[in-house]
Amino acid sequence: MAIGNFDGVHIGHQSVIELARNAAPDAPLGVLTFEPHPREYFAPDAPPFRLMRGNARAHRLEKLGVQKLYELPFNAALAGLTPEEFARNVICDGLGLSHIVVGADFCFGKGRSGTADDMVRFGQEMEFGVTIAPLMERAENVVSSTAIRTALTEGRPRNAATMLGHWHRIEGEVIGGEQRGRELGFPTANMSIEGLHPPKFGVYAVLVDVLDGPHQGSYNGAASVGTRPMFYGEVPNIETFLFDFSGDLYGATLSVGLVEYLRPEMTFDGLDGLVAQMDTDCARARTLLAAL
Q1: What is the DSSP annotation of 109-140?
Q2: Which residues, listed in sequence order, are joined to residue 170 by a DSSP beta bridge?
Q3: Element (H or E) spanning 181, and its range?
Q4: What separation, in Å, do the N-terminal and C-terminal C-alpha atoms of the chain show?
Q5: Considering the domain boundaries, does residue 206 fall inside one?
Q6: Which of 29, 70, 92, 250 has a CA-to-CA distance to 275 between 20 and 30 Å?
Q7: Quick one: 11 and 85 in the same domain?
Q8: Are strands 202-210 and 189-192 parallel, antiparallel or unpaired?
Q9: What element of type H or E holds 221?
Q10: For position 59, which CATH number holds?
Q11: Of 142, 141, 88, 151, nearest to 114 (Cα)?
Q12: Cα separation of 147 and 12, whole Å?
């Protein structure tokens, strides 16, 4: 079993999971993670930082062949365990694991006082195997969720994708909006980004997977992430226009992959200027996505 937070399930996380797969190829491949993310537990009022919600993480892990996913409730009891208590109560006695894989920067136990080397020592004492996965690097930089957040904040989704090993995706349920897009000839699927690290606000070329419902399938599109300054919006969201699509997506779950940042949010003198810009955005997005 691979152990960690796996926020984003980037290529470093994938290397940890692959080591777990190879450690026991005849055993079910498992992942042990935590919900909520420990950082959310200790700093609930901090700005949103997660790259994906729990459901999106589960979908991504399933694509990697993970057969067993354990999400430990991260609460006061778990946070208060010493490193030795975590190893004994959770890994050894609780789950009865025979072999675990952790990243070289893995910390555990009260105050994050336990290290990967400590886990090796506990494994020797408690008779479970431990493999430490080395940190992954790309272009002389260590791959990390922090580096991915920086790339997204700066509007560099392709750089983020290089570290992720897949497009950064925002996954969620389509919710009701004010239907301004429909009135303008660009009906959009609106989704909340609450609790997620916000990428740079603006318009993106996107790849869209409709995960359920009668319109399940893959589509190209353009999406706007932000607060809709033209209409005095306040709460950030993502509004996605699917190319060559007709149908009702309310209540469906969408996975929107950010491919290319096209432009920042803008205001216009009138709706005609906005529509003309949206035409330009969609034409550019079509060209970019056709070249993938």
Answers
A1: SGGG-B-HHHHHHHHHHHT-EEEEEPPPEETT
A2: 256
A3: helix 180-183
A4: 35
A5: yes
A6: 250
A7: yes
A8: unpaired
A9: strand 217-226
A10: 3.40.50.620
A11: 88
A12: 12
Check whether 230 has a pLDDT greater than 70: no
Residues 34 and 124 in one domain: yes
Strand partners, 169: 257
Query: pLDDT digits over 108-156, tens only?
Result: 999 999 999 999 999 999 999 999 999 887 766 778 999 999 999 999 9
| In the chain, % of residues over pLDDT 90 | 85
Please check whether residue 146 lies inside any domain of the structure. no
Q: Are residues 189 and 80 part of one domain?
A: no
pTM, full prediction: 0.92
| Residue 239 among the catalytic residues | yes
**Alpha carbon of 154 to those of 7, 138, 144, 202, 290: distances in Å?**
19, 18, 16, 11, 24
Single residue among 88, 119, 138 that ends a domain in this structure: 138
Q: Say whether both 133 and 14 belong to one domain.
A: yes
DSSP letter at 166?
S
Q: CATH number of the domain at 236, please.
A: 2.40.30.30
Residue range(s) defining the domain that contains residue 274: 168-290
Tell me the two tokens of residue 53. Answer: 């919600």
Instruction: Tell me how many domains the chain contains.
Output: 2
Contact at 8 Å (CB) between 35 and 57? no
For 290, the token pair is 């056709």
Q: What is the DSSP string of 48-108?
A: P-BSS-HHHHHHHHHHTT--EEEEEE-SHHHHT--HHHIIIIIIITTS--SEEEEETT--B
Judging by DSSP bridges, how do beta strands 68-73 and 99-103 pair with one another?
unpaired
192 inside domain: yes
Q: Output the average pLDDT for the chain.
A: 93
State the catalytic residue, choosing from 71, 125, 239, 265. 239
